[in-house]
Amino acid sequence: MWNALKVVFFRSDLPTNFRLDAAAYEQLINNLDRDLQYAIRVEGKMDLESVSNYEEVKSSILEKLVRLRDEPIREECPLIYHLDVAAMYPNIILTNRLQPPSIVTDEVCTACDFNRPGKTCLRKLEWVWRGEIFMAKRRSFLELPKMEQQTRLKERLKKYCQKAYKRVVDKPVT
User: Fold this and answer.
1) Among 60, 78, 77, 67, residue whose Cα is nearest residue 22
2) Its biological function (predicted)?
3) Which range among 4-18, 26-40, 108-122 has the greatest average pLDDT?
């Protein structure tokens, strides 16, 4: 249960406890040749023969994978920064009225992390621009007197707080 509640943000200056799945690393070790060749040919668009240090890189990766498999419980400062924004993503789309492209090329699809048999991510959708156009006023914000700038800024912040936080905070201005 604790893993489900754990924050998914790692910093390189804070030691973190990791419990790795040794079987997953064993599978990576078993498929290392296949995965490296795929990365070179498909993602890198290169011939395998053009890679001069293939065995050296392979042995370096293999050594690290074996060490991770053999010591699955570890405490170390991570080198990977990861912030899971999956739950935030739909809100960003709705808030900013963004519409991601739904049609990608075969090359992009092949290189995607989610490209697996039975994938359902390639839905052909028609996207419509839903932006709004506001005509510029005669006078810019910076041309207004300082007091009017502060008043408008305060009004705008108050409206934002009402929308974002569903409440209004009125604090005295000093």
Assistant:
1) 67
2) DNA polymerase II participates in chromosomal DNA replication.
3) 26-40
